[in-house]
C-alpha cells in the first residue's frame, strides 16, 4: 500500500538498514539511523517531509521508500532511493514509488542520482527511465582517531586584506559552483571558516573552506584551492591538514567524508596524502524533464 511518512524514526531505521549494504547504497543517504534522522528532521528538502518522501508498506511494515531532496531555486532534486527490502517484486514496488511520487515532482526540471556501482537494481531502474550517466565519483573518509597531522603556522583564518584575492582565486578555480567567493565571505561565522595560506610577501597562496556543525556532529570540507604557480609543492595537503585540525578540535565530530569526481585525479591524490581512504565508488545519473 502506498503510504505517507508518519514515523521518521521508523523511516530512518529502514534506510539505515539498507544503505549500509553496497547493493542498496545511495550516495546522498547516511548509513546510521542517527545521522539519517538528523538530516530528515533538519536538512531535507525545501518541501515538508510528507511531500518529499514516499513509502510502500505491506502488513504495516515499510518495504519500499523513495525521497526527493528538493531545491526549488534550481528546480532540481537529489534522489534517495528507491530503497526496497524485498527481492521478489522489486520492479513492481519501484514503479509504484515512482508513479506515486510523480505529482510532487511536476515542478522539477531535473533529478540527480548517486548510486553505488554495486547497486545494480537501482542503476538498471534509473536507466529504464532514460536517465543519462553524467560521471563517476569516489567517496573518501577520515576518522578523528586516525588523524595525526599538524597544520602549518603559516595558515590562519582569512584576513580581511586578502578578501579580494580570495574571491579572485575561488571564482577562477570554481567558475560554475554552488557558492561564489562573495557567497562564501557572507557565510563566514563562528563555524564556517576560510583558512588561508600566505607567502613570504603576505600574498595568498591558497585557501580551504570548511563548514562545521558541532551540534549535529558534522563538518564538511567544501573547497580547497592553490594558485596555479604554487601547485605541486604540498600546499594543498597543508591546507587540508589545517582544515581537519580545525574540524577535529570539536570532540563531537568523529569523521569527515568527501565526494570527488574520478576525473579529478590530482584532487584524489591530495586527499589520500592527507589521510583519507576510499569507502565507495558511485555513479552519477541525471534525469531531465
TrEMBL record:
The record's listing under InterPro entries reads: Acyl_CoA_acyltransferase, GNAT_dom
Task: Extract the Pfam families matched here.
Answer: Acetyltransf_1
The N-acetyltransferase domain, residue ranges: 153-289
Q: Which PANTHER family match?
A: GNAT-FAMILY ACETYLTRANSFERASE, SPERMIDINE N(1)-ACETYLTRANSFERASE
Protein name in the entry: Ribosomal protein S18 acetylase RimI-like enzyme
Amino acid at each position: 500500500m502506498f503510504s505517507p511518512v508518519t514515523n521518521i524514526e521508523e523511516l530512518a531505521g529502514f534506510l539505515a538498514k539498507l544503505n549500509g549494504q553496497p547493493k542498496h547504497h545511495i550516495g546522498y543517504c547516511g548509513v546510521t539511523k542517527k545521522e539519517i534522522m538528523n538530516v530528515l528532521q533538519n536538512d531535507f528538502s525545501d518541501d515538508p517531509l510528507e511531500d518529499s518522501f514516499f513509502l510502500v508498506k505491506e502488513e504495516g511494515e515499510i518495504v519500499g521508500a523513495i525521497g526527493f531532496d528538493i531545491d526549488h531555486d534550481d528546480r532540481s532534486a537529489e534522489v534517495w532511493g528507491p530503497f526496497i527490502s524485498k527481492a521478489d517484486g522489486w520492479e513492481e514496488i519501484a514503479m509504484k514509488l515512482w508513479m506515486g511520487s510523480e505529482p510532487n515532482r511536476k515542478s522539477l526540471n531535473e533529478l540527480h542520482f548517486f548510486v553505488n556501482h554495486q547497486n545494480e537494481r537501482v542503476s538498471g531502474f534509473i536507466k529504464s527511465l532514460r536517465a543519462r550517466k553524467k560521471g563517476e565519483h569516489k567517496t573518501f573518509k577520515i576518522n578523528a582517531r586516525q588523524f595525526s597531522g599538524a597544520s602549518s603556522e603559516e595558515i590562519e583564518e582569512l584576513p580581511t586584506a586578502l578578501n579580494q584575492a580570495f574571491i579572485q582565486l575561488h571564482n577562477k578555480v570554481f567558475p560554475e559552483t554552488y557558492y561564489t567567493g562573495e557567497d562564501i565571505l557572507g557565510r563566514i561565522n563562528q563555524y564556517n571558516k576560510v583558512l588561508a595560506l600566505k607567502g613570504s610577501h603576505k600574498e595568498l597562496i591558497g585557501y580551504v573552506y570548511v563548514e562545521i556543525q558541532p551540534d549535529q556532529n558534522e563538518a564538511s570540507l567544501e573547497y580547497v584551492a592553490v594558485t596555479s604557480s604554487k601547485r605541486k609543492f604540498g600546499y594543498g595537503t597543508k591546507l587540508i591538514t589545517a582544515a581537519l585540525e580545525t574540524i577535529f578540535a570539536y570532540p563531537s565530530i568523529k569523521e569527515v567524508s568527501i565526494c570527488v569526481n574520478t576525473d579529478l585525479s590530482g584532487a584524489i591524490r591530495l586527499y589520500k596524502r592527507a589521510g583519507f581512504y576510499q569507502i565507495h565508488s558511485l555513479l552519477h545519473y541525471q534525469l531531465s524533464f
